[in-house]
């Protein structure tokens, strides 16, 4: 797709959600440029995304501006995935992929984000930290059950549903704040082997490595 103009992706240096968009762009070999937004509440960026959060994109090839990572992922796949690299192989897979994307957007991201907030909070609130760590484990156990005997969520092939889960899973598996309370403390690698194998498989994708360079 060398004839395409680069898509502008607005990101934050510490935010996980923009990586969902970057990984999809890497998978589809769509050119892009990143603009780091230090303060997404500034007027210039609120004019792009009234919600004042990243990611957002400007696509000069279609003159479209979009925000919300899930919507951006769907747009990129529907617009640029001509070879169906990130789509399913069965007639029902379109809806299964959307199902998992909605699960990630409503069931993974917000709870993982709250866990991070309470772990970083200057005021130690153990009951809040425990609540959200327990919810992370619950989500991991759901995914572990779904992935038993499978490599990926839908049709046993990589789709953008899998990619959606990558950034927050990386946060809770790698951030020092969670080392004792979650990943090692809850023995995630051994207690949830299907999830852990999937997580490692996704992290070894060249698109994921490129996104995090």
From TrEMBL:
The name of this protein is Glutathione S-transferase
Q: Which organism is it from?
A: Fusarium poae
Q: Which Pfam families match?
A: GST_C (PF00043), GST_N_2 (PF13409)
Recorded hits in InterPro entries, A to Z, give: Glutathione-S-Trfase_C-like, Glutathione-S-Trfase_C_sf, Glutathione_S-Trfase, Glutathione_S-Trfase_N, GST_C, Thioredoxin-like_sf
Q: Where is the GST N-terminal domain?
A: 5-84
What PANTHER family does the record tag this protein with?
GLUTATHIONE S-TRANSFERASE-RELATED, TRANSCRIPTIONAL REGULATOR URE2
Family from the record: Belongs to the GST superfamily.
Q: Which residues form the GST C-terminal domain?
A: 90-213
